Amino acid sequence: MSSPQNLRNLRSGLTLEYPQSLGVYDKYEDAQKTVDFLSDHEFPVENCMIVGTDLKQLERVTGRLTTGRVAVGGLLSGIWMGLFIGLIFSLFGGSKSAIAIIVSTVLVGALFGVIWALVGYAATRGQRDFSSVSRIVATRYEVLVEHKHAARGRELLTQLPGHTASQQTF
């Protein structure tokens, strides 16, 4: 568990004293390119932050879930877990052969994985019959800098190829 001192140190590392904006970008890569450009010109980038704003969640549906797909997924997960546990047990096993330990834990893991996956699938009662991957992304990225370095940062950014005045906020 984190101590209050560790949380204060984390917060202090993620804050700036009187931050000012150097620019707003639609892509993270453009904000990163800006900070990299500043770094290349010996700007004190330890006084900069890239802040993602206007967060949104993207979810890409990857397929339809069926009982068979769920069972196969549980089977494979159980096999991997059983193999892992079997390898650990075989390292510290006594008189039994390592192969017997590994095979038995893989079989138990496979059975457990199938049962666990099917019970979980049945518990949803058809509320989510698809698989997906999701990600949280920002729609805008702002480069902030300590107030005492803002003027020099803006001056340097006028030399950045492709950097437009519309990206800067004053």
Give a structural overview.
With about 170 residues, the chain is of the alpha+beta class. The protein folds into two domains: about 5-55 and about 140-165, Alpha-Beta Plaits, CATH 3.30.70; about 65-130. About 50% of the residues lie in helices and about 25% in strands. It has helices at about 5-15, 30-40, 65-90, 100-125, 150-155; strands spanning about 20-25, 50-65, 130-145. Helix 3 (about 65-90) runs antiparallel to helix 4 (about 100-125). It is elongated, with a radius of gyration of 26 Å.
Q: Strand order within the widest sheet?
A: 1-3-2
Envelope shape = elongated
Number of domains in the coordinates? 2
CA-based gyration radius? 26 Å
Overall number of strands: 3
CATH class value of the largest domain: Alpha Beta
Low-confidence parts, pLDDT < 50 over ≥5 residues? 6-10
> Largest beta sheet, briefly?
3 strands, antiparallel
CATH architecture term of the largest domain: 2-Layer Sandwich
Number of DSSP helical runs: 5
Fraction in beta strands: 15-25%
Q: Note the run of SSEs as H and E.
A: HEHEHHEH
| Overall helicity | 40-55%
Topology:
Blueprint: H1 4-13, E1 19-25, H2 28-40, E2 48-64, H3 67-92, H4 98-123, E3 130-146, H5 150-157
Helix pairs in contact: 3-4
